[in-house]
Amino acid sequence: MILSKRPDIERFLSRPDPGIRAVLIYGRDMGVVRDRGHALAAKVVPNPDDPFDVAVLTEADLADDGGRLEGELAAQSLMGGRRLVRLRLTAEKPAQDKLAAEALERHAKGELNPDAFFLIEAGNLDRNSALRKAAEKAAGAAAIPCYEDEPGDVARLVRETLAKDQVALNTDALNLF
To answer: How confident is the model at residue 42 (pLDDT cuts 50, 70, 90)?
Structure first.
């Protein structure tokens, strides 16, 4: 499943579909990728920084030990409850891309720990990426692309942020901003 429209993404991030076991968030704007990853992690587990319920891996971890990713996805939470496995990829490297894609496919099918949630935060992936293809096609997975903000997105963000403090801008001030 691909979530590319902002309302669909925001709805999913605020209330993740329980049938989704894996999510790939990727794009050129790593700040948005990280923000969305953090928002989703906070909905999946009570404390995204808890080392007993959360495993954080990088591409270096995959290079050092190719079996560690599937091992983390198969592991149970030490404290009970849902387990979160976060994989952070900064560059598209074919070996790590393929390894992550294979793990995503198996996990989305429920072959590994079905109570675990697999969250992948990646940089820009081209359409030939094995990981991107796997996330888009798997029934138990979702892909969320993060594109650069358009002027309308920035204006909406400014309005929403200021509205929290009960401040508003008229059209001229918003255009100037």
So the answer is: very high
- How far is 174 from 134, CA to CA, in rounded Å? 41
5, 57, 118, 131 from 101: Cα distances, Å: 24, 15, 11, 4
- pLDDT of 92 strictly over 80: no
Q: Measure the CA–CA gap between 159 and 51, rounded to whole angstroms.
A: 37
Counting beta carbons within 10 angstroms of the beta carbon of residue 126, is it exposed (0 to 12), middle (13 to 18) or buried (19 or more)?
Answer: exposed
DSSP codes of every residue in 86-99: EEEE-S--HHHHHH
| pLDDT for the residue numbered 173 | 76
3-state secondary structure of 177: coil
**Predicted pLDDT of residue 82:** 86
